[in-house]
Amino acid sequence: MCRTLSAFPITCLERAKEFKTRLGIFLHKSDLGYETGNAGKFEWNNKQSKESRSFSEDVLGWKESFDLLLSSKNGVAAFHAFLKTEFSEENLEFWLACEEFKKIRSAAKLASRAHRIFEEFICSEAPKEVNIDHETRELTRMNLQTATATCFDVAQGKTHTLMEKDSYPRFLKSPAYQDLAAQASSTNASPSSCSPAEPLHT
């Protein structure tokens, strides 16, 4: 057992393990493709969080705003797992693909990736076709003629709005998130309890 947790009472360890198990069930088989790095990987100790929040605070923060959820790797993973249960994960995967796309500096790679994203998410009958209007689809197609880091901005904005107004509220009302948030609130309410942000080693 790790040095940090060895001094905690059994009840604390059980609570932390239960919390981890709950999230593990929530994120069961969640996997994000399209070169999103570790976006689909659950991280107990989110070192890249700008505010270095504990995991329980991170979970509770997801209901504050959709953008706050998207800024959290754990939040993205949990949201993706939820969307998979609704068979609607393509919008989030497209949004993430666009975020990675904007980081490309090579013009040649930019053009190549742009066409891959278009073929996978935008064109009619694409394998992961997102729900956007015909006008946006055609505008994006035209943007590919001179691919830039902003060529998917309109389409990405449309999918962001769609998720924020549709999928995100359902995610917050889902039994899985409600259960997870309740456990996070319980952890925060007990100062003597261990934080779920601590890695669990046995």
Mean pLDDT: 78
- Give the H and E element order: HHHHHHHHH
Share of β-strand residues:
under 5%
Number of strands: 0
SS content category: mainly alpha
Task: Supply the number of helical segments.
Answer: 9
Question: Could you describe the 3D structure shown?
Answer:
With 202 residues, this protein is mainly α. 57% of the residues lie in helices and 0% in strands. It is built from 9 helices and no strands. The chain has helices at residues 10-26, 55-61, 66-70, 73-85, 90-101, 107-122, 134-143, 153-173, 175-189. Helix 1 packs antiparallel against helix 9 (175-189). The relative contact order is 0.19. Residues 1-13, 29-53 and 192-202 have low confidence and may be disordered.
Question: Would you spell out the secondary-structure blueprint of this structure?
Answer:
Blueprint: H1 10-26, H2 55-61, H3 66-70, H4 73-85, H5 90-101, H6 107-122, H7 134-143, H8 153-173, H9 175-189
What characteristics describe this protein?
mainly alpha; 202 residues; disordered N terminus; 57% helix
Provide a brief overview of the structure.
This protein has 202 residues and is an all-alpha fold. It contains nine helices and no strands.
